[in-house]
Amino acid sequence: MSTSNSFPIGTPGQPWGNEEKAQWLATTSIKRSYKDDVLSKIDALRDRFDVTQYGALSIDPARYPQFGIQSRNFDASKPTMLITGGVHGYETSGVHGALKFLDSEADAFVEHFNFIVAPCVSPWGYETINRWNPIAVDPNRSFVDNSPSEEAANVMAFVKGLGVEVFAHIDLHETTDTDESEFRPALAARDGKDYEEDIVPDGFYTVGDTENPNSDFQKAIIDEVRTVTHIAPADADGNIIGSPVQQDGVINYPLASLGLCNGFTACKFGTTTEVYPDSPKVTDEECNDAQVAAIRGALKYLINLK
Predict the structure, then answer these.
(1) Cα dist. 180→73, 187, 266 in Å?
(2) Can you tell me whether residue 158 is helix, strand or coil?
């Protein structure tokens, strides 16, 4: 593994201050439309689901409203399923996989579950194709008390305000080539550290919770997804992104202590999905379908527990 401390912003070995963060923000630009790509699909669901605006980003509240979508006729006797997407806004299939599930498959499961879906937690990140928010904070390390990310704080307040117990939570993500070419080097520079190169895994994998791994649950998701796309192999050291593989396509993180989205609900069953959209073996739609398959695999497993 090689290291580097070269990045066009900042001084090697010194964490960024406000000036460097402003320089970084100046390099960002709008590359696609949240309104056209996402809000239009949310609007199309309003005749079948309850849609609530739970927040808006301060950088441009009119442009970046945040929406939650719920199945109708919430029933306290049913377990509640939380699905989040777009916590990292640039991870496209997380957003569109969540919306595709609602449009195409949620109706088949509403007799068993209540659904809460936040399909695009980070709309500015979606438009600028970015991992961070405008103040160079990673929302997916910010699901903590007094969160430095309004994206994370707003969705946590929304879910808490509903007053329901979240039984299971699927957080939809991607691992991309730009993680290594752009985002992790930027992270190292921001924090005044050397960048350590790693290998981007080619295929789908999940991240379970070290404290509550639910191995059979993770396996059910992997088995359903492998009908749609390939599963990421371990590297030569038996790892995926530096973490030991627990079973085919599964690694574990201490989710709550890292401030990750899947750790904020204290749910009984949780997973973070990771699709690899840059593989030559997949299309964009297959990536969306892999996210839908992950949700479907989780739900089928949970139904069979009853």
Answers:
(1) 44, 10, 31
(2) helix
Helix 284-305 to helix 215-225 angle (10° resolution) is 140
Say how many CA atoms lie within 13 Å of 109 toward its Cβ: 25
The pairing of beta strand 114-118 with beta strand 65-70: antiparallel
DSSP state of 212: B
Structure tokens given for 281:
């073996």
Question: Using one digit for the tens of pLDDT, what is the confidence trace for 172-220?
Answer: 999 999 999 999 999 999 999 999 999 999 999 999 999 999 999 999 9
Q: What is the mean pLDDT of residues 107-123?
A: 98
Q: Which residues pair with 116 in a beta bridge?
A: 70, 82
CA 222 to each of CA 68, 170, 261: distance values in angstroms, whole numbers, following the listed order = 27, 13, 20
Query: What is the per-residue pLDDT across 34-51, written as a single tens digit (0 to 9) for each?
Result: 999 999 999 999 999 999
The two structure tokens encoding residue 1: 């593994």
Half-sphere exposure of 96 (CA within 13 A, CB side): 19
What's the CA gap between 119 and 83, in Å, rounded? 7
Question: How many whole angstroms separate alpha carbon 98 and alpha carbon 118?
Answer: 8
Structure tokens, 263: 């750790």
pLDDT of residue 2: 46
| β partners of residue 50 | 70
3-class secondary structure, 114: strand
Are 275 and 208 contacting, i.e. CB atoms less than 8 angstroms apart?
no
Give dist(CA 57, CA 64) in Å, integer. 6
Q: Is 75 left (phi over 0), alpha (psi -120 to 50) or beta?
A: beta
271 forms beta bridges with 170
Q: Which CATH number fits domain 3-305: 3.40.630.10, 3.20.20.70, 1.20.1300.10, 3.40.30.120?
A: 3.40.630.10
Strand 65-70 vs strand 50-56: parallel, antiparallel, or unpaired? antiparallel
